[in-house]
Specification:
The protein folds into two domains: 208 residues, Cation efflux protein transmembrane domain (Alpha-lytic protease prodomain-like), CATH 1.20.1510; 86 residues, 2-Layer Sandwich (Alpha-Beta Plaits). It contains eight helices and four strands. The longest helix is centred in the N-terminal third of the chain and has 36 residues. 43% of the residues are buried. It comes from Bauldia litoralis. One of its GO terms (biological process) is intracellular zinc ion homeostasis. Belongs to the cation diffusion facilitator (CDF) transporter (TC 2.A.4) family.
C-alpha cells in the first residue's frame, strides 16, 4: 500500500513539473499575441499566464515538500504544504488583477485601435486551446489523486480559458465596430474575474488549513464502510474526519462486547482500516476501542 502511494506521489510530481512547461509555452504564445496587436486585453491575458507559471512552480515545490515522510517535528506528515501553494497562487492572482486594472485605466484614458488583430487573435486562440486541454487533465488527475495543488492549478487555468474566450470575442467585436475603448473595458472585466478566482482559491485553501471535515457524501460513505466491516462489534460513534492535502484523517470509537479478547477487537479494527484504505489509500485512521457500557446508540450503529 505504501509503495503504491509513493508511486502515485511521484507521478503527481511529474504532472506538476509538466504543468510548469505547459505554462511557459502558453505564456510565450500569449506574449507574442500581445506584441503583435498591442492590445491591453491581450496584455492582461498574458499577465495572468505569468501568474499561472508562478502558481505551477509553487505547486511543484509544495507537492515535493508534502511528500516528505512524517518526522519528529511533523508526526502527522507534511501534507498541508499543498494548501500553502494554493494561498500563494491566490495572492499572485490578486496582484496580477490589480496590475491589469492599472493598465486598463491608462489605456482607457488614451485608447487606440489594434494592430494586426487577426494574427494576434489566432496565436492567442492556440494558447487558449492548449490551456483548455491541460486544465481538464489537471482537474481530473488532481481529484483522482486528492491533490489540492493540482486541482487549484487546473481550476485557475480553467478561469484563464474562460477569460481568454471572453477577450477574443470582445476584441473581435472591438475590431468589427471600430470602438477602441472596448479593449481596456475587456481588460478591466478580466481583472474582476481574476480577483474572484483568487479569492475562491484562498478561501478553499484556508478551509483545509482549518481542518474542515470531508464533504457529507464522503462522510456517509465512510460510515457505510465502517458499518459493513465491523461484524462482531456493537457500534461505532463519534466519527470525525478532516482533510490535509492528499491525506484524510478518520477517527472514531468502536464499541465491542466487554468479554471480547483484545486480539478479536484488533482484528475488527484491521478489517475496517483495510476497507477504508481501499477506498481512500491516503487515509490516516485512528480507532479507539471501548467496552459495551460506553455505547451511545448513535452515530454508526453496527448490526
Amino acid at each position: 500500500m505504501k509503495g503504491h502511494a509513493d508511486l502515485r506521489m511521484q507521478s503527481t510530481g511529474r504532472i506538476a513539473a509538466i504543468s510548469v512547461g505547459v505554462g511557459i509555452a502558453v505564456l510565450g504564445l500569449k506574449m507574442i499575441a500581445w506584441l503583435i496587436t498591442g492590445s491591453v486585453a491581450l496584455y492582461s491575458d498574458a499577465l495572468e499566464s505569468i501568474v499561472n507559471v508562478a502558481g505551477s512552480v509553487a505547486a511543484l515545490a509544495a507537492i515535493a515538500y508534502s511528500a516528505r515522510p512524517a518526522d519528529a517535528n511533523h508526526p502527522y506528515g507534511h501534507h498541508k504544504a499543498e494548501y500553502l501553494s494554493v494561498v500563494l497562487e491566490g495572492v499572485l492572482i490578486i496582484i496580477a488583477a490589480l496590475s491589469i486594472l492599472r493598465e486598463a485605466y491608462f489605456s482607457f484614458l488614451d485608447p487606440r485601435m489594434l494592430e494586426a488583430p487577426v494574427e494576434g487573435l489566432l496565436v492567442n486562440a492556440l494558447a487558449s486551446a492548449i490551456n483548455g486541454a491541460w486544465c481538464w487533465f489537471l482537474i481530473t488527475e488532481g481529484r483522482k489523486r486528492r491533490s489540492p495543488a493540482l486541482v487549484a492549478d487546473g481550476r485557475h487555468l480553467l478561469t484563464d480559458v474562460f477569460t481568454s474566450i471572453g477577450v477574443l470575442a470582445g476584441l473581435i467585436l472591438a475590431v468589427a465596430t471600430g470602438i477602441p475603448w472596448l479593449d481596456p473595458l475587456l481588460a478591466a472585466l478580466v481583472a474582476v474575474n481574476i480577483l474572484w478566482s483568487g479569492w475562491r482559491l484562498i478561501r478553499e485553501s484556508l478551509g483545509g488549513l482549518m481542518d474542515e471535515a470531508v464533504p457529507a457524501q464522503m462522510l456517509d460513505e465512510i460510515r457505510s464502510i465502517i458499518s459493513a466491516n465491523a461484524e462482531g462489534a456493537i457500534e461505532a460513534h463519534d466519527v470525525r474526519t478532516r482533510n490535509a492535502g492528499r491525506a484524510m484523517f478518520v477517527d472514531f470509537h468502536l464499541v465491542v462486547p466487554g468479554t471480547m479478547a483484545v486480539s478479536e477487537s484488533h482484528a475488527i479494527c484491521d478489517r475496517i482500516e483495510k476497507a477504508l484504505k481501499t477506498e481512500v489509500p491516503d487515509a490516516m485512521i485512528t480507532i479507539h476501542v471501548e467496552p459495551e457500557d460506553k455505547a451511545k446508540h448513535q452515530g454508526v450503529v453496527v448490526v
